[in-house]
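Narrative progress, year one. The postdoctoral researcher (J.K.) led the effort to move from monomer predictions toward full complexes, under supervision of the PI. The following entry was the first complex the group processed end to end, covering 1117 residues in total.
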Amino acid sequence: MSDAWLLPTLLVVPLVGAIVMLIAGATAERWATTFGLIVQSIGLAITLLVVANFSLSDAATMQMVVEWSWIPELAVDFRLGVDGISLPLVVLTSLLGWCAAVYTFRHLPEPGRARGFVGLLLLLQVGMVGTFLALDLILFFLFFEVVLIPMWFVIAFWGSGPRRRAANTFILYTVLGSVVMVVGFLIVIVQTGSSNMVELASGLGAEMSSGVQLTAALLILVGLAVKTPMWPLHTWLPDAHTAAPTVGSVLLAGVLLKMGTYGMVRIVLPVLPDAALAVAPFLGAFAVVGILYGAVASYGQNDLKRVIAFSSVGHMGFVLLGISTLSIVGVNAALFGNVAHGLITGLLFFLVGSIKERTGATSFTQLPRALYTTAPRLGFLLGFAAIASLGLPGLAGFWGEFLALVGAYHPLDSGARLFYRVLLVLGAVGMVLAAAYFVRVLRRVGQGEAPPQRFADVRPREWLTWTPLVLLTLVLGLAPIVLLEVTDPSVRVVVESLAGALS
Amino acid sequence: MTAPLMMVVIPAITALVGLLGGGSRRWAAALAVAGPFTSLVIAAMIALDEPWTDPLLDSGFASPIQPFPAATVVDGLSISVALMVAFVATLVQVYSVGYMRGEPRYSSYSAFISLFTSAMLAVVVAGDLLILVVGWEVMGLCSYLLIGQHWESAEARQAAVKAFLVTKVGDVGFIIGVIVLIGSTGTSSITDAVRAAAADPTVAVVASSLILLGVLGKSAQFPLHAWLPDAMAGPSPVSALIHAATMVAAGIYVVARLYPMFLAAPEVLTVMAFIACVTMLGAAVIALAQSDLKRVLAWSTVSQLAYMLAALSVGSRDAAIFHLLSHAFFKALLFLAAGVVIHELGTSVIARLGGLRSAMPVTFVTMTVGLLALAGVFPLAGFFSKESVLAAAEHAAQGEGEVSAAVGWLVLVVGVLTVAVTAAYAMRLFVLTWLGERRSSASAHEGPLIMTIPLLVLAVPSVAFGVVILRDSWLSTWITAEATQPLAAVSALGPEALTVVASVIAVVAGGVGWLVARGTVSRALPDDGRAARGFGVDALYDVTTVRPYLWLVRRTAAFDRRVVSRAVAEVGVGTQAAGSTIQQRHRGDVQRYIGVALTSGVVVLVLLLVAVAT
């Protein structure tokens, strides 16, 4: 049987789900979360089918491609496909979407309103998965934008604290970023007459003059860098995370941030190779500033969610550093780091959400101490996630960062070797600083004199949500090859064409 | 899966099972002992399988990254250290069953000890730099978890964080060093990478000096030593494990494992010699001034590890490993014996000990053996191993070593001086703990069998290990696998002048220690002196690192709140204005932001049309 139906179905299923939620009557409030879980489970099952159908020996080429003419006047096609670069992110997205559905099963954040919430999450899923599947610049942009609206609603209506302000900052930043980005896309489309990402990547894009490439790349990078977020465009992130409800934070950190770095590897490196070579050192410099800044600022936060938000700035800095080396090891490291950060930070935000649910607080001044005693299993998981996040070798968080540094030892452009070795040293310092702030968190939240009260420990619903994340963190930490062998063939193709552009 | 890997993985699995919890305390204890004991059995089986194809490379593990092969190394070096690690860890687990009776978090405690053992064994048998890194860092984590076992107390929390972060500082160097090694040699196989690095002096110097930083942190050498004395906030068996079998031994072991590369970097060896000399004598003097039983032992570990580093710096890997092994036995013995005293009296303050000889005879005898071995009294293990370090220094002083004669002389003189100070503080500790009057009203009894048996078991190698090695046994051929000179020098030691001099000095110093201690207790316990406070190294950390960093943290957090946020907000000021206009017309926020989103959508469409038109 042909497997061409798989990818469109991956989009259609949550889309239909969202539409059902939209038109369903008030009675749907009662079964909405069940419905959401079923839809996400179907989505996850289809994703697993995609994995099963994926040919590893052919990971460098687009597979399960579908192509429909869409706006022929503009040469814009509806084109989907999956390769070694996008497959891990598709899996991550489906998994986290499913986790979010389990976590919110009959258990919505205030003020409830199940239909709206489930519908928005399903719509969000369409945008997220679509972004990673799209093989057309305009289609990519549309999915990229589709994500924003539901996320705005989720933060603004189901959030807490100054949620409106946070939601507004989030949408203003990203909308501004993507407006700039689409101008870059249009330059590429007008110059080459094509919006087909595969075609552009296989040499059509490289035919543009360096000046045009650079202009387009800078515009596109602004949009992607806001999303990542790259220092100093990160300031929407802590506010958004603090205000967002738990699953909002999880999807924001776990999936939305990856759309930025994915765009760089998928579009900027292969389509605009000359420009990529020119901007890479700058990207590397910003990346390292982000690593150090994120670590230092994180230490200075007094709210769990803000600590994790700033830690994301640092972790995504390592992803950017890996990309900026333009080396095989570095870009692989970046893709690995994307997935690892999604799993670990997703888990961290889930845990913080559950802590908040029990204690009513996320700030250090209000949180009771000694979670290891008051809820031992929850405390243990928090310790595990924090240790994974600070980059303990043997867990997933380490390899992305370590290999990014290995990549920095041998950047593609050997003329910039010395510069990248400075970045290497600074990045390694950042790894230690990350240990400092997570140890501070554990000391403040996990340890200390136990208060008299006890909190409910991990519930079955929570176990179900978190077990896959914990297991994958372990598996990828002990056998990183599982992921690296998927990404490596595609990365080699991208880097080899960059090497061609260099010489 | 190959035998060396099983030796590593099995205690990790028992740790995981223990962490998942469930089951009775008896089950947890059985699990705790089973992990390291299985490793010990496997290590013994590998050892008996001699001769190993040298070095035997077993790739039994899916390689983490494609171009990086993964492997384990089985040779005399790794197997002798692995035997020691598993042996000490097993005894620590047995002892803990008694010592941690009534501990509510026993199952996680013993699981972390098993994980610690597993990580150390991973470092020991690692044939690949990546496995080495994993073991190295997991050990750092376990030390943090175990030192902070009693995290209700602020002291334990502080000590745990300090141990973790100070060693992490060294690890910046270690990680970069490993990357340099992998990056410049193109392989992560230890044997190949070291061979390639040894052939390239620049790489050898850069990589060894960076890795040395990590070693200084793990093995608690100046200036990254200050975490170890505080680490005694952890339970005594944990101290025994950290000070003998795992953690601190790892630093020395890694230098020994990468030794050809260090030999190709004589500059680094010289720096190492200076650091070893400062640490050796400085820590011994500090130990002399401590008022806490465990702190004396902790500082003595710092000083004894410096002997091993010194041996490495003068070109003798074998003497370093010899001392590593013999020190592991008597130091584990000392900490476990100290644990019995603490367990019975509830204190480790020396001023409250004294006169315990008759109350706890087994502990008394075994601890005395440990102290004699530490002081280097003939014919105990410590005598021979320390002599072999000094002999290696003498060898170098005669200009026959890898480093200059001056460095050899320095190590030799400081080493002999430290022999004297060591004898003095060992004697002082002995007198104040065991002799004289009881200074505490608490009743004292001998510890339970489950705690005293490990003491007796450890006393055997503390006494006999040196003699066994000297008798040119199978064991000594393991340690002297490499083509360096020193153990041969020891074997031919005979009534050499050096030995006589060192022994005489030790006896005289011990006598002085005795006299000082017998004088008055208060004079023997100067706990407000500069030496007692470790010569202010903590204050140095505070001024040079901690305070500046916290200042930076505050400034950055404030900066982020004000400057960056505002700057970016002003970039979007036009849109803000548009938004607020809409907001003024329609009070509802929803409309306003759907408005913004739509506006931007329209902008996009207009741009699209313009683009098509051109």
